[in-house]
């Protein structure tokens, strides 16, 4: 009986991995047979599920695109990128097992550049889609770089190769099972002949013994194959766990991520006795991010020039019997310390971690000296997958940091412009941000809430940029009309921030920072805990800093007078809880220390430097 690939291909396991892959990277996937039928899918975009594949005409485009894409593969290609008939980018990876093109793994439903809304408006009219909902779905389609897709496809190809190897192992095991069944059938036939032909007993017994030896040999071979499959399964489960947790690992520092990755590598690659992870800093110095088995206490204090690394430009998984560095180029005292801290090894397996052809680190696994172990080919492929994971992490992390710093600098610049616009509020936004965050910390709110409070405080008056400058800096009493205009600044600030995906989460706090606890505030006359907690905090911090500052219409109040006003208005203008917290901070002389703690540990913390990370 022939063994079919479809009977041995582990769809369930691949589906679980692809679901985890989708959760970690937000890349959608589907397995499609050669006739264009979708066998399974994971995390499809709203634009495909609710529009393109929901209508017969556009669904026909999808199936036609899938069929075209699957036939576009040329010999030697790992994957093919194609723009579907509905306007999205798709990528296909062939699933080839023992030379047979079995099915295709699709990913995609993304764009390489910002979408042409005119194109999709015409498409909405052509296929009678609800234009507003359809364009909303279009805007949710992620825009990614070709470099990112290249890294993601390398990981998907590695996953498919491992699944394919497991399938081949299972097919071989099934062949052995079939052979065993045939042997048992033969044995049964021989036993029947023995009962009928006693005169051939001696000859039949000899033949039976031969069959028994054959069965024992096959059983031993099956046990060996089963052990190998179980080992691969264990590695595969650990790889799934690592990929599934990638989203959480984005919060780690680069050194902590390397340390975490090293522990997984040693667990998944059993030949390794020791391990080293190097990271290259901004000064082109190699530092040990983490070590397993070697003397971490000595090595963590050492660093080396990047140019001393052996095989610096190598991009493949490689074996070596040498140490990490060119020892001849290291001064003798430092060389002796290095050799003392490193355990003797028989062999090392290593790979460089690269971003845009720039090496930023290295993972190296070691087999101890005098060991009989050797690194297998599958272990080399797994280490290569670790390199792809690490490259993806560092690419995303560094882009994320760049984007966060840009947003922070842009906000700071806007605040400086606002201070030039309002002559009497220089430093007011920073003061409110720091004080509000300090109050949030004293209230033992979460780090995320403290960060949201800080950024909301920094931009709480951004709506004032739309108020005429002569009203902002007016020294006399405002007219009713002018005061009504002033009262609109929270609404305008809310609208401005709501247009930004990064700043939208804090827009509602800006909208309500002039509400009052007794319901007599603006713009919505919210009262008590109808007012968001962060808005309650901003209201108290804003009032405190305003009272201590010179304004166009009055001089600054004394510390004592301002504190009395906070106490007198607790429960009317201000939240009692927030007012009591501020009073406690002020009377305990804790305000400056709290500000320093907040800035160092909550706002400028390198692990949490993203603005408004959800």
TrEMBL record:
Residues of the HD domain: 425-547
Gene3D superfamilies linked: Hypothetical protein af1432
Keyword terms of this UniProt record: Coiled coil
SMART domains tied to this protein: HDc
Record's keyword annotation contains Coiled coil: yes
Domain HD-GYP as annotated: residue spans: 403-598
Residue ranges crossing the lipid bilayer per the database entry: none
Alphabetical list of PANTHER family matching this protein: CYCLIC DI-GMP PHOSPHODIESTERASE PA4108-RELATED
UniProt name for this protein: PocR ligand-binding domain-containing protein
């Amino acid at each position: 009986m022939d063994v079919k690939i479809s009977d041995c291909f582990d769809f369930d396991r691949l589906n679980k991995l692809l679901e985890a892959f989708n959760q970690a990277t937000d890349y959608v996937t589907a397995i499609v047979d050669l006739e264009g039928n979708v066998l399974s899918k994971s995390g499809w975009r709203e634009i495909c599920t609710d529009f393109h594949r929901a209508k017969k005409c556009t669904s026909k485009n999808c199936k036609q695109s899938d069929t075209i894409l699957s036939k576009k593969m040329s010999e030697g290609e790992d994957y093919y990128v194609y723009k579907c008939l509905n306007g999205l980018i798709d990528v296909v990876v062939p699933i080839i097992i023992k030379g047979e093109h079995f099915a295709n793994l699709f990913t995609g439903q993304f764009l390489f550049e910002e979408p042409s809304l005119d194109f999709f408006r015409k498409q909405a009219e052509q296929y009678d889609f609800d234009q507003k909902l359809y364009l909303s779905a279009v805007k949710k389609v992620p825009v990614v770089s070709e470099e990112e897709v290249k890294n993601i496809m390398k990981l998907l190809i590695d996953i498919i190769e491992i699944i394919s190897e497991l399938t081949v192992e299972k097919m071989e095991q099934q062949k052995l099972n079939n052979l065993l069944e045939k042997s048992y059938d033969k044995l049964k036939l021989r036993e029947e002949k023995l009962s009928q032909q006693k005169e051939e007993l001696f000859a039949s017994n000899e033949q039976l013994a031969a069959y028994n030896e054959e069965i024992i040999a096959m059983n031993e071979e099956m046990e060996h194959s089963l052990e190998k499959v179980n080992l691969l399964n264990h590695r595969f489960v650990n790889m799934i766990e690592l990929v599934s947790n990638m989203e959480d690992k984005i919060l780690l520092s680069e050194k902590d991520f390397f340390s975490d990755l090293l522990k997984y590598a040693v667990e998944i690659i059993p030949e390794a006795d020791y391990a080293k992870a190097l990271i290259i800093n901004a000064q082109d110095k190699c530092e040990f991010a983490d070590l397993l088995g070697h003397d971490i206490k000595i090595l963590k204090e050492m660093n080396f020039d990047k140019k001393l690394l052996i095989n610096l430009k190598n991009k493949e998984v490689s074996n070596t019997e040498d140490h990490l560095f060119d020892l001849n180029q290291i001064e003798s005292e430092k060389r002796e310390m290095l050799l003392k801290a490193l355990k003797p090894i028989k062999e090392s397996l290593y790979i460089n971690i690269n971003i845009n052809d720039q090496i930023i680190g290295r993972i190296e696994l070691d087999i101890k000296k005098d060991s009989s172990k050797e690194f297998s080919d599958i272990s080399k492929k797994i280490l290569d997958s670790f390199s792809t994971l690490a490259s993806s992490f560092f690419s995303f992390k560094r882009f994320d940091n760049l984007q966060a710093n840009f947003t922070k600098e842009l906000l700071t610049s806007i605040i400086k412009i606002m201070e030039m616009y309002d002559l009497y509020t220089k430093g007011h936004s920073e003061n409110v941000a720091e004080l509000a965050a300090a109050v949030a910390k004293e209230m033992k709110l979460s780090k995320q809430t403290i960060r949201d409070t800080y950024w909301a405080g920094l931009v709480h008056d951004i709506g004032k940029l739309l108020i005429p400058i002569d009203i902002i800096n007016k020294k006399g009493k405002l007219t009713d009309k002018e005061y009504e205009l002033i009262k609109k600044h929270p609404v305008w600030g809310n609208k401005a921030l709501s247009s930004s995906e990064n700043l939208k989460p804090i827009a509602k706090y800006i909208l309500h920072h002039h509400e009052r606890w007794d319901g007599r505030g603006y713009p919505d006359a919210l009262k008590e805990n109808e007012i968001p907690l962060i808005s309650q905090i901003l209201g108290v911090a804003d009032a405190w800093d305003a009272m201590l500052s010179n304004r166009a219409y009055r001089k600054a109040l004394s510390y004592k007078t301002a504190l009395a006003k906070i106490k007198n208005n607790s429960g009317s203008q201000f939240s009692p809880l927030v007012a009591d917290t501020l009073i406690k901070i002020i009377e305990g002389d804790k305000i400056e220390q709290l500000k320093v703690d907040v800035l160092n540990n909550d706002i400028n913390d390198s692990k949490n430097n993203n603005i408004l990370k959800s």
